[in-house]
Every structure is written in C-alpha cells, then in structure tokens.
Design goal:
Layout lengths: L7 H9 L6 H13 L3 H13 L6 H14 L2 H14 L5 H13 L5 H15 L3 H9 L6 H13 L3 H13 L6 H10 L3 H13 L6 H13 L3 H10 L5 H13 L3 H14 L6 H13 L3 H14 L1 H5 L1 H13 L3 H9 L6 H13 L3 H13 L6 H13 L4 H14 L7 H13 L3 H10 L6 H14 L2 H15 L5 H13 L20 E5 L2 E5 L10 H11 L11 H12 L6 E5 L5 H14 L3 E4 L4 E4 L12
Parallel strand pairs: 3-4
Antiparallel strand pairs: 1-2, 1-3, 4-5
Helix pairs in contact: 1-2, 2-3, 2-4, 3-4, 4-5, 4-6, 5-6, 6-7, 7-8, 7-9, 8-9, 9-10, 9-11, 10-11, 11-12, 11-13, 12-13, 13-14, 13-15, 14-15, 15-16, 15-17, 16-17, 17-18, 17-20, 18-20, 20-21, 20-22, 21-22, 22-23, 22-24, 23-24, 24-25, 24-26, 25-26, 26-27, 26-28, 27-28, 28-29, 28-30, ...
Pfam family, one: DYW_deaminase
Protein name: DYW domain-containing protein
InterPro entries: DYW_dom, PPR_At4g14850-like_plant, PPR_rpt, TPR-like_helical_dom_sf
Length: 632
C-alpha cells in the first residue's frame, strides 16, 4: 500500500520490521522501489535477495528486468536473464515479455537486431525451433547474443546435437562465446565426456571463475554421476552462493551420499556461509530419509520451519517430510502431514501412496489412489508403479496386477508401460509361484529388464528350487548388463548354486561376485552410523558388537561374517535402552541368512526391528515373525 502511494521510506520501515522475510515481502518492497523510480536501489535489493537465498519467481524476475530496461542497462539485464535460465523460469511468458521490452529499449546494439534476437528467444522458449531458425537466418548481423539464443533454443527443446553443431559454426564465424553461451552449452551436455569438453572451453575462455557457470558445472557433473568432478568444480568456486551449495548437496543426495550431505549442511550452519532455502531443506530431508535419520531430519525441518514461513508452508518441503516419515517406518505420521497439505500435487499423492505400498499396506494404497483420481489429479508413471508394487508386495493374486495394468491402459490412453511397470508384473508372477509366466514376460519385455527384475525372478527360483530356470535368467541378464552391472544377481546366483550342492559359479563367473556389499545405516542419538561388510573389526566398538550378536544369535555362527545390516543392528543393541525399536537401512536386498537371524534377534531381545532394504520394509516383531511373510 505504501509503495503504491509513493511512500517508499514508509514501505521500507514496514519491511525492516518484518521478523521473517519471505519471497512475497521481498517482491513487494522491490516493486515499491521500482514503481517509484528508485531503479538502482531496486536492482540492489534484487541482488541482495538472491544472496539471502530467497527463491525468485517470474514476477520478481520481470520487475528486475523492467528496472534494467528503465536504466538502459543491458548488461545487468543479461545477468538477470541468466538467473532466469538458472531458475528454470526463462520460458515464462511474463519474463519473456519483459526481456523483449529490455532488448527493445536498450541502445547497445541496433534496435532492429535486438528485437529480432528477442523474437528468436521467444520462439525458442515456446518450442518453435523452425521459426527461431528463420529469424536467425534473416539477421543481417549475428551477435554473440543471437548465437547464444539459438543455442539455448536447441538445448531447451531436446535438440542437443544441433546445439553443439551451432556452437561449432559460431566459432568458425569468429564469434567468441560468452558466459551465457556456455550456460546453454552445459544444458545441452548429455554425457561426462561432453561436460568435460565444454568445461575445458570455459576455462580456456577465462570464465571458470563465474559462479553461475561453476554452479552449472557442479550440477551437470552430479547428473553424470561424477561426484569427484562435481566436488572439484565446487571447490574451485570462491564466491559460493546458495545455488552452489544446493547443487553440491543435491549431487551427494542423488548418489546416496547422505553422510556428505549432512557434513555440508553442518558446515553451512556452523560457518554461517549462506542462508538455507527451500531447495536446501528438501535435499537434506531426502538424504535423511534415505538413511532413516528420522531424529536428525525432524530436527532440521523444525529448525528451518520456525525461521522461515516460506519453508514452513512450502508443499515440496511438506512432501519431503511425508517421504521422511514414510521411509523411517512412521506411516501414521506421514499420513498426518499429508492430510495437512492444502493443495496437493501428484508428487505429494505419489509419496504417500508409495509409503503405504512399501510397508505392504495395499488396501490403503489403493484407497488413496482412488482418492487421487476423485480429486481430479492425473496420475503419472510413478503413481502406477506404486499401485502395482502394492499389489505385488501386499500378497494379492498375480491376476490382480495384470487386471490393474489393463485398467490403467484403458483409462489413460496416453500411458505406455515402462520397465518399472513390467518389473512389478514379473515380480508379482514370481511371488505367486508362476515362474513359467514370469520368465516368459522377462524375455518378452519390450524394454530392457533391470537388475532388480532379474534379482526378483532369481529369488523366486531359489524359493522354488528351479535352478535351471535361474541359470537362464541370469545368463540373459549378464548378456544385457554384463557382470559388473549385476552384482546382486551374482550374489543370488552363487547362493542358488550353493543350495544346489555346487561349490562355485560357472567358470565365466568365477571371481565376479563382489567381496564387499553396499552400506547399511542406523541413527543413534541423531548421529548416523554407516557399515559395510567387513567393518566389524574396524569399528571402535567391534568387540562389543561381535559379542552381542553371538549372544543373540546361534552361538556357533561366526559373527565376523555378518553382513552390514547385522553390524548396524549389533551397534543399536548395545547403544540404546532395552526394548527400544531399531531402524536400519540397507542399500541392497537383505539375504536369507540375515533375515532369519533378525527374526531370532527380535524375538530374543524383545525388540521390534525395522529393516528397509532395496525391496521393501521388513517389520520384525517380538513374536519372531516378519511383515514380509518371508517373501521379498
């Protein structure tokens, strides 16, 4: 109100009196300054807003771009445009219109050329590549801005090969790429090799110190799975902003490196380097969910929700909290948070449905799925995977899964089943003992079966003693993915051969079975402990863990050979009060021996033990049973 009445100082006083600034309050004061002609101050507030870690929207960006237009500051306008690209808002109509106005008013180049470039940019953002190319070809002079706009148009619309071709033509024309060009080229990279090639060009052009490019490199290397390259790029950035930290945190989180995620978070908080925002909190919560670090995750959420209204009310943060509770075995708490989300999107629905499915609550999963459709929300591939998974792991008949998939295809004609959906069908058939049908579907799948599909079928073959079928399935999987990509299948095949009375795998497989399994985690007093097989002798409390496991399980078992989840459980037994429930996460599937041992431990210690492996949740009860009914 003060801003609209020209009372900028009064508006600033009100702004300064707000205890917790959010995106809305920042945008209002920015608008007040811009509306009353305080353009330099408005632009300064915009950059300060970014430094504070406040998320910008299309309206905020349009104000900043308009301010640059009024100042005739094309350089600052290009910098704001780069922020829009980095935020994924470059294709928004309001932002694009403001950019056209900026280019039209600026006098740094011929105005006709500027308008042509703006029109080219608009066409690219709305997927009109042919029209964008026509505008580009008609230009009497092509500046670096025009070349960059065409490259960006290709990168934004899935024409990455064309982006590289245009980049090479640009250099042949003698036009030197700028930092905006390289931002678009990084977006066009689809492999680690391409990322490193463009990185070399960035360094050669002297742009490696640009924080925006550094952020893009961290994110790109992370997507390519190269954690070390991402960390090297991160360490080279001297003026890191919240986007930098979020990119590195997200990279670690996506690769399952939860410990490193928490280390970066602690560094941010201890050194007060930047102010965490919604994206930071979401990444942290997801990492805690993967490690079942419920106490730590809940504490982090509570801390930042109390400091930021934006974080407290954000739907993505709430969805991540649902995910945290669901993956930590607190389904009721997950549902309580879900019910309080005001405008649920399909991701929120999927997260809650998945929580029910992973815990074997197939009825609740199906009921929630029908609620989703009644609310008018269109389900997506993830929704269908969760429903099929719930049927598979909820003990329903195999024909229920087939019927459900047929129903989905009838109701949603644009839906094409993918490997995840076929995997659920194979898994359902295998669990039902229909091994012949499961094998036929495995070989007939129109998409490449994953290692998880192979493992599920091999597991069923072991249960039913069908060793010949297991050999055929394993051979097919090895043909498709090689030995390196089938570590769990190799372990299972070795176990099957052992059950059949054979001492070792076939000659071609000898030495291929990995000697070290993936990690397991347990949270004790907000500290996450990580174990791998063989860590039993190196842990500070190794001897205590060994004795406790020997006491709880059969005495003749060699505790040193226990797998990572057993070591985690052993630490939990000696570190927590008697009777307290233990929560353990294992990155791979639990083996039969450990599963049997955990049932014994739960019964003898009178503790509930919840194990989340790659397949599902196992709730071991003090009665000596497991929620999976020995089928996973």
């Amino acid at each position: 109100m003060y801003g609209k009445c020209g009372l900028v100082e009064e508006a600033k006083e009100v702004f300064d009196g707000i205890k917790r600034w959010n995106e809305y309050s920042w945008t209002m004061i920015l608008s007040a300054y811009a509306h009353n002609g305080h353009f330099h101050a408005a632009l300064g507030l915009f950059w300060r807003m970014l430094l504070e870690g406040i998320r910008v929207d299309s309206f905020t960006l349009s104000i900043a771009i308009t301010v640059c237009s009024d100042l005739g500051d094309l350089s600052s306008g290009q910098s704001v445009r780069a922020v829009a690209v980095e935020s994924g808002l470059h294709s928004d109509l309001v932002v694009a219109t403001a950019l056209v106005n900026l280019y039209g008013k600026s006098c740094g180049f011929d105005s006709g050329l500027i308008v042509q470039t703006a029109v080219l940019t608009m066409y690219g953002r709305f997927g009109k590549l042919e029209q964008a190319k026509e505008v580009f070809d008609a230009m009497p002079e092509r500046t670096v801005v025009a070349w960059s706009a065409l490259i960006a148009a290709c990168a934004q619309n899935g024409c990455e090969r064309n982006a590289f071709r245009i980049f090479r033509l640009m250099e042949l024309e003698g036009v030197r790429p700028d930092h905006v060009t390289f931002v678009s080229m990084l977006a066009a990279c689809g492999s680690l090799e391409e990322a490193k090639t463009i990185h070399e060009r960035i360094a050669a052009a002297g742009y490696e110190s640009f924080v925006m490019l550094g952020n893009s490199l961290v994110s790109l290397y992370g997507k390519c799975g190269s954690i070390q390259d991402a960390r090297d790029a991160f360490d080279r950035i001297t003026a890191r902003n919240i986007v930098t930290w979020n990119s590195m945190i997200a990279t670690y989180a996506q690769q399952g490196r939860g410990r490193e995620v928490l280390e970066l978070y602690e560094r941010i908080m201890d050194e007060k380097l930047v102010k965490p925002n919604v994206i930071t909190v979401v990444s942290i919560l997801d990492a805690c969910a993967d490690m079942a670090a419920l106490e730590r995750g809940s504490e982090i959420h509570a801390t930042h929700s109390s400091l930021s209204q934006e974080i407290e009310s954000d739907i993505v943060v709430k969805t991540s909290l649902v995910n945290l509770y669901g993956k930590c075995g607190r389904v009721a708490s997950a549902r309580a948070v879900f019910d309080k989300i005001f405008a649920r999107d399909v991701v929120a629905w999927n997260t809650m449905i998945a929580a029910y499915a992973q815990h074997g609550h197939d009825t609740q999963a199906m009921e929630l799925y029908w609620d989703l459709t009644l609310e008018g929300v269109t389900p997506n591939d993830s929704s269908f995977v969760s429903i099929l998974f719930s049927i598979s792991h909820g003990g329903r008949r195999s024909r229920d899964a087939v019927s459900q998939l047929s129903s989905i295809r009838e109701d949603y004609t644009n839906f094409t089943p993918k490997v995840e959906h076929y995997s659920c069908l194979v898994d359902t058939l295998a669990r039902a003992g229909s091994l012949r049908e499961a094998e036929e579907l495995f070989f007939a799948m129109p998409c490449l079966p994953t290692e998880a599909v192979c493992f599920s079928l091999l597991n069923a073959c072991k249960v039913h003693g069908d060793f010949d079928r297991a050999a055929r399935v394993a051979e097919r999987s090895f043909q498709l993915h090689g030995l390196v990509g089938n570590s769990q299948a190799l372990v299972m095949l070795s176990s099957i051969f052992s059950s059949a009375g054979r001492d070792k795998l076939e000659d071609g497989f000898v030495g291929a079975v990995p000697s070290k399994e993936l990690e397991s985690f347990i949270e004790i007093d907000k500290v996450v402990h990580e174990f791998s097989a063989g860590d039993g002798s190196s842990h500070p409390r190794a001897e205590e863990i060994r004795r406790e496991l020997a006491r709880c399980v059969l005495d003749e078992q060699d505790s040193r050979r226990h797998h990572s989840e057993m070591l985690a459980v052993g630490l939990g037994l000696i570190s927590t009060p008697h009777g307290r429930e233990l929560q353990v996460v294992k990155k791979s599937r639990a083996c039969w021996d450990c599963h049997a041992a955990l049932k014994i431990i739960s019964e003898r210690t009178r503790r509930r033990i919840v194990l989340r492996d790659e397949s599902k949740f196992h709730h071991f009860e003090i009665s000596g049973g497991c929620s999976c009914k020995d089928c996973w």
